[in-house]
Specification:
The structure holds 2 protein chains of 2 kinds. Chain A has helices at residues 3-7, 11-23, 25-38, 47-59, 64-80, 89-102, 130-143, 160-171, 184-197, 215-231, 250-262, 280-287, 309-317; strands spanning 118-123, 148-151, 174-176, 202-205, 238-244, 266-270, 292-296, 304-306. By secondary structure, chain A is α/β, with parallel strands linked by helices. Chain B is an alpha/beta fold. Chain B has 23 helices and 8 strands. The radius of gyration of chain B is 26 Å and the shape is flat. Chains A and B meet through helix 4, helix 8 and helix 11 of A and helix 2, helix 6 and helix 9 of B.
Chain lengths: 321, 469
């Protein structure tokens, strides 16, 4: 134990965590200050304490199953290691959360791009912020000197094409569209043909928001995914599920079904600058295995950060450790 | 439909209690544990869950056992009642004062569905309250938000008032009110920009809008998939604006929608409407009692009855029934029938309203696209063929032609023919049946086996079940 503490020794790490801290200020105030209250030095470990901890994690939308097993682990650890002071539970909690997230894997949050043309496909339910996220990702890639083109694959929702076009203008990206109502797969097909001719490095493909229980819409998405894969070997290099941080347990169902249809490579957790804790992302990682790649922390074009579980936990527990 | 898993879980908990002659305190406690977990999984706020389970436990343990109910039924009843109460008790009817202009302001987080809901609400009010609504675009921040509202207005044939993104909101409001007066609009629906409840500047802007407009109703539009944070959102919006009600959106997903359950309890505002799909008709009045029944897997016959009576022409229905009983039912009637069903909304949604069907739909994989396929099949038939299904039945070349014309398989044509036959037979059998022999408590058994299930048992794979209505 204690290695988590060491993680945060470096100054650089702390500076990086600043943005998370500011973004998640409210989260910490609401939930984890209470955790701080609970886990005071000298406080006894009682059944009531476990229940309170359980409740706190539930409030963070981490999911009943995940929370129950986490608290079960705490109970066992307390028994095995004969922990008597509530304060000592802090490290146990942080360490366990970290371990569960990392799962002994190297979680790479960089967007995977190939030599030549790469395709990033953005999927998710309605209103999670897919289009805005594409704007932010475009900005990020442009800064790295990539030639980016946005593809207006949401041909269903009123105003969706223009919403993306405005983002392309803001970021100076190229823009590809077909008329509203076009088959989205054909939009992808034509966009890829165009991109191949015009030396585009990365295609950012928007899709219409769809609820995961709408079978025909999910089939449509499966087709989009297949068409992209057929036109470019190994594409889409990334299929990113955009999840609103305010999402509750339905996030799990979203991740599960979208993953079945399009094989997700990562999650983008948006709107983390509110009071929502985004704990569902941890539940998604734990039960579906898909890691979080990026987090949205505001409405500005540069309010997008790579997800770093250490920073995330540190952001949550900054006052606790 | 939402709340599925919640009802499953509660049903599991209920099963243990059901049929018991006597309830021990331990029984109730065990059941309440299930109820607690289930509600938490459904995103009901943990504070609400706590008070709910405590409440139910006390009621269930009390001595008010009703005549004719065993203690198990009693608990089910208590849970149902408490759930209804949690959902807001009485239906909060939407009313319009005649002879005066009503303004409704929509507010909420980004992506909760305000713009779509504005369109749906305008459509609902026009349809049910004989009013002439005007949509007003106040979202000057999100790119293309105004365009979205304008497009929705065009689709509905409802006027949209907008001043672009540069005009101060106060001027847009004044302009809208003038426009409404000049053009005889009696209901104005204001679509505001989505914002975070903790964004003080933006919340201040809403307060200014409210002060200037002095709307009759301020609704909070809330995504049904919201987690524990729903309470904080509702609380903030309520504190800033004193909202008068809420609209829960995206309830056509598989979310359990517990956030909605928390709304009334925590923010003390009624849930007025619920959004149930992407189409602009997909908005319904929120009925707490029916929804509680749905949660408990009791079905929602009332909503079904409402939908049917709203969308089905009685005379059409009668003449169709007569035809069916006489065995003259043909593809033209079938097509008409499908159109009626379509008007009522999604098939999968409808199925869930039928008691006992909730469970079945899960395995049946009801695909609304099927209706479209069947329509295409029938549309590929000649007029003669539609009138006389035997023509197709007796000719394999006709069957092939219909299949090719519709882009479906011959097997599907065959299945359609089979379904039509089965329907005819079933109806004829029913017409011969003595009505008194039908046991109202076992409606499913006395009805002929639906072909969809037969196909299912034969294991022909998903999406291949026949359709019958």
């Amino acid at each position: 134990m204690g290695f988590i503490k060491n993680l945060f020794q470096s100054k650089k790490r702390k500076q990086q965590a600043q943005k998370y801290r500011i973004g998640m200020e409210k989260t910490r105030e609401n939930v984890f200050n209470r955790l701080d209250d609970l886990l005071q030095s000298g406080a006894p470990i009682t059944e009531e304490l476990f229940e309170d901890i359980e409740e706190l994690f539930i409030t963070a939308d981490m999911g009943v199953d995940v929370v129950l097993s986490l608290v079960e682990h705490l109970r066992n650890t307390v028994e095995v290691k004969k922990i008597q002071d509530a304060h000592d539970l802090r490290e146990v909690i942080v360490e366990e959360m970290f371990k569960r997230y990392v799962k002994d894997e190297i979680v790479d949050t960089n967007l995977q791009l190939s030599e030549g043309l790469s395709v990033l496909l953005f999927v998710g339910v309605n209103g999670v912020g897919k289009t805005t996220t594409i704007g932010k990702v475009a900005y990020l890639l442009q800064k790295k000197g990539k030639k980016v083109m946005m593809v207006a694959g949401d041909t269903f929702r009123a105003g969706a094409i223009n919403q993306l076009r405005i983002w392309s203008e803001r970021t100076g990206s190229e823009f590809f569209e077909k008329p509203k109502g076009s088959d989205p797969s054909s939009v992808m097909y034509d966009a890829i043909a165009y991109a191949k001719k015009h030396d585009i490095d990365v295609l950012l493909c928007d899709t219409a928001g769809r609820l995961q229980n709408k079978k025909h819409l999910m089939e449509e998405l499966g087709k989009i995914h297949r068409v992209i894969g057929r036109e470019i070997k190994g594409a889409p290099q990334e299929t990113l599920l955009v999840v609103d941080a305010t999402t509750g347990q339905n996030g799990l169902s979203q991740a599960k079904i979208f993953n079945e249809v399009t094989r997700l490579t990562g999650v983008v957790l948006t709107k983390l600058d509110g009071t929502a804790k985004g704990g569902i992302a941890l539940a998604i990682r734990e039960t579906i295995g898909v890691p979080v790649k990026m987090v949205g922390l505001g409405e500005k074009v540069d309010d997008l950060e790579h997800f770093d579980i250490e920073e995330y936990i540190y952001g949550l527990f900054a006052d606790v450790i | 439909m939402a709340f599925d898993q919640l009802s499953d879980r509660l049903q599991m908990a209920m099963r243990r209690v059901r049929g018991k002659a006597r309830l021990t305190e331990k029984d109730i406690e065990e059941m309440m544990r299930e109820v607690r977990l289930s509600l938490l999984e459904a995103d009901v706020n943990f504070k609400v869950v706590k008070s709910f389970t405590k409440d139910v436990k006390e009621k269930a343990l009390g001595d008010k056992i009703l005549k004719g109910l065993n203690p198990g039924q009693q608990v089910v009843k208590v849970v149902h009642e408490s759930l209804t109460e949690l959902l807001g008790g009485e239906t909060s009817a939407f009313t319009l004062e005649k002879g005066k202009t009503t303004s409704i302001m929509l507010s909420g987080l980004q992506g909760s569905g305000k713009t779509t809901t504005a369109g749906k609400l305008a459509n609902y009010i026009r349809k049910h309250h004989d009013a002439k609504p005007l949509l007003v675009a106040l979202d000057v921040y999100r790119p293309a938000a105004i365009e979205q509202l304008v497009t929705i207005g065009e689709q509905l044939g409802i006027d949209v008032y907008e001043q672009g993104t540069k005009t101060p909101l106060k001027d847009v409001i004044d302009g809208a009110l003038e426009h409404a007066e000049a053009n005889g609009h009696d209901v104005l629906i204001f679509d505001t920009a989505g914002r975070l409840h903790i964004d003080e500047t933006m919340m201040e802007e809403l307060k200014t809008v409210k002060a200037h407009l002095r709307p009759d109703e301020i609704y909070l539009v809330l995504d049904a998939m919201t987690g524990q944070d729903a309470v904080s959102v509702a609380d903030h919006f309520h504190q800033s604006l004193s909202i008068t009600g809420s609209i829960i959106t995206k309830l056509d997903g598989d979310t359990r929608g517990g956030a909605a359950l928390s709304m009334k309890k925590v923010a003390d505002v009624p849930i007025k409407f619920m959004g149930l799909g992407e189409k602009l008709e997909d908005l319904e009045v929120f009925h707490p009692e029916r929804m509680a029944g749905r949660i408990l897997g009791m079905g929602d016959v009332m909503t079904l009855v409402d939908k049917v009576s709203e969308n089905v022409d009685e005379e059409d229905m009668m003449s169709m029934m007569e035809k069916m009983m006489e065995g003259k039912f043909n593809f033209n009637d079938y097509l008409k029938q499908l159109k009626m069903v379509k008007r009522m909304g999604s098939l999968s949604g409808l199925m869930k309203l039928i008691p006992g069907m909730n469970k079945m739909t899960k395995n049946m994989n009801v695909d609304d696209k099927q209706i479209v396929y069947i329509e295409t099949l029938i549309n590929s038939m000649t007029k003669q063929e539609r009138k006389k299904p035997e023509l197709i039945k007796n000719s394999s070349s006709r069957r092939r032609r219909v299949a090719q014309g519709s882009g479906r398989s011959v097997a599907e044509v065959n299945r359609l023919l089979q379904t039509l036959d089965q329907q005819k037979q079933a109806m004829q059998r029913m017409s011969k049946m003595d009505p008194s022999s039908i046991d109202p408590n076992k409606p499913m058994k006395s009805m002929p086996q639906p072909p969809a299930n037969k196909n299912k048992k034969k294991g022909k794979g998903k999406g291949k079940g026949g359709f019958r209505f």
